[in-house]
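Same chain as my last thread, 208 residues:
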Amino acid sequence: MLKIGVLVSGGGTNLQAILDAIDSGEVTNACVQTVISNNVGAYALERARKHGIEALCISPKSYDSREAFHQALLEALVERDLDLIVLAGYLVAIPPAIVNAFPNRIVNIHPSLIPSFCGVGYYGLKVHEGVLKRGVKVTGATVHFVDAGTDTGPIILQKAVEVQKGDTPKILQQRVMEQAEWIILPRAIDLIANGKVTVTDGIASIEE
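reply #2:
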């Protein structure tokens, strides 16, 4: 059974998609053991509690330095002996110490088709604002492993979403979540939980 820790900063809609997929049997051989947020008011923590899952707030505001915060987060993850860490809308950069402690065991969901509209500065609505400003016709979402860069790790799954006339960043954000993020994130977790994802020379391959 794959033991998962989910890191999230806000409402936790992707967390909910994961929990629903596990409950329905769409995701097998996996369980969410803990949910950690940097934001004490994150509704994701309430979602975890309602599901009987440990809900922790580890906030940078509680520590004297960023290094102390990073150390506390690392210790919490290691202590729980997690097999996979899922970044589901976690708006805090993951330090190298955590990446190194969990090589190819941290996945992130990004609301664009990487390598477009990703990297430093592209998060949340800023991604969709960039998509609309550029006038692209197709966007989407990407699940990838986390490495030392920003949105540069091996790509596991991607799903395209059409940009429609009259879209605002918020409308597009919702469509990308519904049509891509909530589908491919649980799917990627199921693939990993069942040993169907391998990484060779920085490229992720899927055994169907």
